[in-house]
Amino acid sequence: MKTILLIIALCPSITIAANKIIHQKLNFKAIGKPAFIKASGSIPLQEIEIKLKENKISGKFTANMTKLNSGIELRDEHLTEKYLHVNKFPVATFTFDEQIINLDSDTQKLKGKFLFHGKEQDKEVEVMLNKNGEILDLKTEFKIKLTDYDIDLPSFQGITAADTVTIKLESKIGL
Predict the structure, then answer these.
(1) Nearest residue to 57 via CA among 110, 5, 10, 8
(2) pLDDT tens digit string along 109-165?
C-alpha cells in the first residue's frame, strides 16, 4: 500500500477513482404549509465515482430514490409512488465534469448536472472537500424546487409541502 501511495505522490497525473463509500449521509428536509410541519428523511447513495487528477476533480453521485426513508412508512409510499414515480425514475444523480479544485480551501463551487425525476438541470453547489490520505471528505448542502423537476407538490390531509427541498450530503470516500 505504501508503494502505491509513493507512486501516486511521484506521478500526480495518475487518475484515482473512488469506489468505496466509507460513510454517507444524504438527508432531505421540506417545510410544509402550515410551516410548523416539517418532513425530513434520508436517501442512501447507491454509487459514488470520483476522479482526482492533479488539481482537477470529476465525478458522479447516484442516490437510490426507491429507498427514501422519512420515518413514516405511509408517507414514504405516497412520496415514492404518487409524487416521485420511483418505478420510472429510481435514481437521482449529480454529475460534474473535470474542473479545477483547491483541496486546501474551505469551500468551493462545483458545476454539474442534476438529474431528478427524469429532468436534468444545470446545478452549481458549494462543497467542502478535504483529502486526508486515502480518504476524501465531502460536504454540501443545496436547495431544489420540486416544480423545476415537474413534481407536483406533495399533499396529504390538507398539509402541502413547500416547493423548496434542502438536500444535505456528507460523505467519506475511499480513494
Answers:
(1) 110
(2) 999 999 999 999 999 999 998 888 888 889 999 999 999 999 998 887 777 888 999
- Phi and psi at residue 30, to the nearest 5°: -130, 140
Q: Which helix (H) or strand (E) holds 6?
A: helix 2-10
The H-assigned helical ranges of 22-174 are: 73-77
Cα pseudo-dihedral 154, 160, 166, 167, rounded to 10: -30
The strand pairing partners of 141, in sequence order, are 168
Residue 129 is classified by DSSP as: E
pTM, two decimals, is: 0.81
Write the CB contacts of 153 (distance below 8 Å, at least 6 apart in sequence).
Answer: 146, 147, 160, 161, 162, 163
In the three-class reduction of DSSP (H, G, I as helix; E, B as strand; rest coil), residue 4 is classed as: helix
Q: Alpha carbon 7 to chain centroid distance?
A: 31
Q: Which amino acid is at 155?
A: S
DSSP 147: G
* Residue 82 per-residue DSSP state: I
> Cell triple for residue 77?
409510499
